[in-house]
UniProtKB/TrEMBL annotation:
It comes from Clostridium bornimense. This is Putative alkaline shock protein. It comes from the Bacteria. Belongs to the asp23 family. Pfam families: Asp23.
């Protein structure tokens, strides 16, 4: 992901964007953690701490981002409210911190934890 202006170039790696998305998502109420598919058995596992970017897929086309987030939510919370909060927070943080435009954010709930 590149931004070109009169002063020079800024190049963002997918890992940086994914980390911003992961941290922003974990700050939202009702999110237990990010989810990642285990290559061994194909099951979804809970990610915490430094592995937050593994629960995020970032695609960039013409300086416009498409983001997919895989999460595990807390039991007893309203999933639609959690998803809307994540979408608003992630879009705000990514656009303000990087200057890139976010086109779509897809929130995939992979599990519910007590």
């Amino acid at each position: 992901m590149n931004i070109n202006n009169e002063n020079g170039n800024i190049i963002y790696s997918d890992e940086v964007i994914a980390n911003i998305v992961g941290i922003s998502t974990m700050e939202c109420y009702g999110v237990v953690g990010m989810a990642s598919k285990s290559p061994k058995d194909g099951l979804w596992e809970l990610l915490k701490g430094e592995n937050l970017s593994k629960g995020v897929k970032v695609n960039c086309k013409d300086e416009i981002l498409n983001i997919e987030i895989y999460i595990i939510v807390e039991y007893g919370t309203k999933i639609s409210v959690i998803a809307n909060n994540i979408i608003q927070k992630v879009k705000y943080n990514v656009e303000n911190l990087t200057g890139l435009k976010v086109s779509t954010i897809t929130v995939n709930v992979q599990g519910v934890r007590v």
